[in-house]
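Why do we care about 3D structure at all? Because function follows from shape, and shape follows, mostly, from sequence. That is the central idea of this module. The next example makes it concrete: a single protein chain, its amino acid sequence, and then its structure expressed as C-alpha cells.
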Amino acid sequence: MGALSTPLLVLVFVAGGAATWAAGVFLSNTTDALDDRFGLGDAFGGLVLLAITGTLPEIAITVSAARAGHLDLAVGDLIGGVAVQTLVLVILDAVSGPERPLSYLVGSLLPVIEALIVIVVLGTALGGAALSPSKNVFGASPTSIAVVVLWLLGLWIVNRARMHPEYHVEAPPGATPGRRYRRQGDVHPYAGASKVRVLAIFLAAAVVTLVAGVALQASGSLLASRAHIGGAVFGATVLAVATSLPEISSGVRAVQLGDMQLAVSDIFGGNAFQITLLLVADLIAGTPVIVAAHHSDVWLGAAGILMTGIAAMAIVARPQRTYLWLGIDSLALIAVYAVAIALLPK
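And the structure:
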C-alpha cells in the first residue's frame, strides 16, 4: 500500500470508513434479532455482541501496530479512543429527537453499571503506565491482566443485574427502554429469517468491519506519516474517529429502532472491551505496551474517564430539558472534549 499515491490512500481511507458504517447498520439489526432469539437482553447484547464486533477495527489496528512495533499507535488508539467514542453519545442524543435527552430516554440503570466498568478498567490500565517494563507476567503488564479479569467480572455483574428484578427500576414517563417493536407489538427485525441466516449476516458484517479496519489502519498510518503527524496524536484523534464509525452507525440504527438502552450499551461496552486489547498487544509485542503511553494518551484517558462519569451521572439524574436539541450532559461532553483537545500535551 506504500506505493499508492496520497489521493489513492485518501480514497482507501474513505472507503474503509464507508464500509464500517454500512456494516454497523447490519450489525445493529442482527444483534437486535439475536438478542431476541437467544434471550440475551438489550443491555447485554449491546455490551457483548455489538461491543466486540464494533471493536473489530481496533483489534485489527492493535494487532498490526503491535506486530510492527508501533506501540504508541496501539496505545493511542485504545486509550485515546475512549474519549472519542464517548463523544458519540452526543450524536445519538441529537438523533433521538429534541423532546427529551438520550440520558432520560434510556429508562434503565444497567448502562450505569456498564459505564462504571469502563471507569474501572481504564483507570486500571492507566495505572500500568507508571510501572517499569520489567514488571511483567510472561511479557504482559499486570494491569493488562487485571483489566481482562475486571471486564469479565463486570459482564457477570451486568448479567446478574438484568436477570434479577430487584435491580430493575421503573422507567420515568416518556422513557423508551427496550425495542419499539416490542412496545408496539410489531415483529422484530429479520422476523421471518432463520437463526442461521441471521447469524450468517452478523458474521459477514463483522468480517467487513474487520477488513475495513485493516484498510483504515494501513492507509491512515501512511497518511499520518506523509503529513508528519505523530503516531500517538493520530491514533488518539483521527484514527479513533474513523474506527468509531461502527459504533456511530450501529448506535444510530439502535436509536431508530427505539432502543436507547442498546445504543448506550454499545458505546460503553465497546469502550470497556477495547481496553482489554492491551493484553493482546502485550502478548504480541512481548512487552507491556502501556509503558509506551505518551502524556497525551494519559491526558485523553483521564478525559475519557471524566466523560464516562458525566454520562453515567446523567442517566441517574435523568435531565428532562434539551438545549439546542441536546441534553445538558451532551453539552458537557462536548465542552470536556474540546478542552481536552485544546490542552492536549505535545
